[in-house]
Automatic annotation (TrEMBL):
SUPFAM superfamilies: lambda repressor-like DNA-binding domains, RmlC-like cupins
Protein name per Swiss-Prot or TrEMBL: XRE family transcriptional regulator
Keyword DNA-binding: yes
Keyword Signal tagged: no
Residue intervals of the HTH cro/C1-type domain: 13-67
Keywords: DNA-binding
Amino acid sequence: MASQPGIAVGARVRQLRTDRGLSLSALAAAAGIGKGSLSELESGRRNPTLDTLYALARPLGVPLAALVDFADGAVVADDGFETVLLHTDRTGTATSEVWLLRVSAGVTRSSPAHSPGVVEQLIVLAGSCRVEHGGGSVEVAAGGHAVWPADVPHTYAAGSSGLRAINVIVTPS
C-alpha cells in the first residue's frame, strides 16, 4: 500500500502526463519504466523510488521538485540514500532546488542525465564522496564544493563515513 506522500506524487505525475498529452504507454516508454509500474504509481498503489522519479522528470520536462509539488520537507529515499527538499525558488528563467542529502557509507547513487542546461552543485557538510560526470571525476571532502553540468549521467559515491551534503540543482526554464 502506498503512503500519503506516494499517493500525492502519483496524482502529480498523472496530472503532468495528461497536461502534456502523453499516454501512459508513451511516458512509460520515454522514462524506461514498465507501463504497469507507472499505472500503479499514478493510482497510488505504489510508492515511487528516487530512480523512478528521476526517470519520469526528464520526459515530463520538469525538475524533480515538481514531482513532489515543490513541497518543502518532501522526502524521497531509496536504500541508503535520502533527499529532503529544503527550498525551491522558481523564476522566469530557472528553477533552483535545494536538497539535503544523506547517503550511507559506501552507497553509490547513479543519476540519469537531467534536461539540457541543468547544473548541480554539492556542498559537503560531513563525510566525503566522489562525483563522476561526463568523463570527469572529483573527490569532495567535508567543507568542499563541486559544480558540474548535470545534463549528462552522473554518480555520487559516498566515502567510508557516509555523506551529508547540500545539493543545489538549477534547471533553466
